[in-house]
Amino acid sequence: VKTTVGILGAGQLGCMLASALHDLDAEVRFYDPDPRAPGMRRFAGGRVASFSDEGALSEHLRACDVVTVEMEHVDTAALRKIGARLVPSVDVIETAGSRRKEKAFLRARQLPHVAFATAHDVAELRAAVAEVGAPCIVKTSLGGYDGRGQWRIEVESAAATVIGAIGHALGERFSLTVEERVDLAQELSCIVARDGTSEVVFPLFENVHEAGVLDLTMLPARVDPRVAEAARDIALETARALDVKGLLAVEFFVLERPPARSPSHSVAGVHLCINELAPRPHNSGHVTRVATDVSQFDMLARVLLGVPLATPRLVDPGGWCMANLLGERFGADGALATTALGAAADGLCELVLYGKPTAVNGRKMGHLSTRGADVENARASARRLRDALTVTR
Ligand SMILES: Nc1ncnc2c1ncn2[C@@H]1O[C@H](COP(=O)(O)OP(=O)(O)O)[C@@H](O)[C@H]1O
Ligand SMILES: [Mg+2]
User: Fold this and answer.
1) pLDDT of 81-122, one tens digit each?
2) Does the beta carbon of 184 lie inside 6 Å of ligand 1?
3) Which atom of ligand 1 is nearest to the CA of 139?
4) Are 353 and 329 in contact (CB under 8 A)?
5) Best label site of 35, 136, 282, 379, fewest CB within 10 Å?
6) What order of strands is seen across the sheet that includes strand 4-8?
7) What's the pTM value of the predicted model, to 2 decimals?
């Protein structure tokens, strides 16, 4: 009999996972509050209901053999109440889904991270900002993504104004994490997969963010081999400490100077800190669809279906680049003028359009990946191809 896999969340990560699951002949059932979510439009049999609807959640879980998440912003209290057993576990989703819990976990396990303090009201926030000092970034503990739910305090003298604005926006009680703002030499990410018997680590990715949103991922990362090895070791250690089943993506900051008041890992003249964790497929991992012999989605499908894992390896010695396509490039109806690429499409390994119903600035609508003789070549063609995709609105 076929295995039925439930996916909580029906965005692009869920869709790409669903395709990988179909390749292994599994049935897929999405669950999402939004009837227009890509997974609901593209795959039959989805359930449209709130993540807090315990009745609908229980019913959905009963109809599936195994259930996973495509994002961590689910209602873990509701999942606990109905005794949900997910892959990854509700414990893992809860830790990675809350910046406060994630940071507390990193601190308790002495994993490298930037200095932080937490706050639940304006008085605590004032104390937290004073403790961490400027420059710092205030981040919501729950629900933030793509740089949303963040406030920057550049200088001490601006703190009172920003804190006032935060109090005005969030009310009297909230959960915030204040982080030291560090100077980034580079950003990296690493994806680990574990199935209870074996564990594998993907090659390290190098990421470039624009205004808090991932813009480009390059593979292989342009780092000293010792840095790559250290980052992969730390990612594996983190996944083991959390006892993740499924995927864990670990985002890293690379610093030229060690952070003043927090533990970092020094290697080959630079310093690594973990930024955040995601217990699911990760945007930076999209490049594995073309660059490694097993993609992040195929790997998670294997974990969910009990197919043995295999160490993912680069398919050839070249370089790859993944570029996100945000809403500003699309027509208001969510369409993209792909024919504009013309003969320029040489080097384009894949173009994936997520099928979101409306294009909003900053929203991830698709991505493209390129291959080149090396990473710089691949990045140049990713940028060129992306620029050729003209705005149709
Ligand atoms: N403490 C920090 N110091 C410097 N840059 C940061 C810091 N925190 C976040 N950033 C920048 O903002 C980006 C998004 O922040 P992140 O905490 O990863 O939020 P999100 O959950 O939205 O991805 C990071 O990838 C990095 O480029
Ligand atoms: Mg991030």
Assistant:
1) 999 999 999 999 999 999 999 999 999 999 999 999 999 999
2) yes
3) 17
4) no
5) 35
6) 47-48, 27-32, 4-8, 66-69
7) 0.97
